[in-house]
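Example record used in the benchmark description.
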Amino acid sequence: IYKRGDHGNAILSKYPIVHWDNEDISMHDSERRGLLHCEIEVPGWGTRLHCINVHLGLLGHWRTKQMLRLKQRIGELVPEDAPLVIAGDFNDWRRMASDTLVDDLNVYEVFEATSGRPARSFPAILPMLHLDRIYVRGFSVERAFAHRGKSSSRVSDHIALSARLVRKV
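Model output (structure tokens):
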């Protein structure tokens, strides 16, 4: 919460969010960062969907520590066979997040899977950098979309990314 407005992470679901936790992974008081982890009860699945929304730091050594914390959290709290979505602002213009997450967590990035590289998402007015990602496990990607346009650039300095996923059983 700031004098000029608010910002943060959010996960919206039409199904019940049965557990959530917002972990502070800030590396410095000047740059607040977090991991929002939700467990969602999807009817008929028999296992909970784990969704984690991230906002990682601007400095590389901070992101390295934050990625380690993300991997630790998933290792401790997310069963290996549970469906998983990790999405958000990785601030990863050097495209190193996939190297860390793909091998260790058995996830893949939806835009890399559908088009060979992450989506350009920043700045919204003319997206050039690949900062935002959607990683999944237990799903196939039906469609991945980067929401470009004037209306998007009025909402955020990043464009929104979305994916239509189909659960692998």
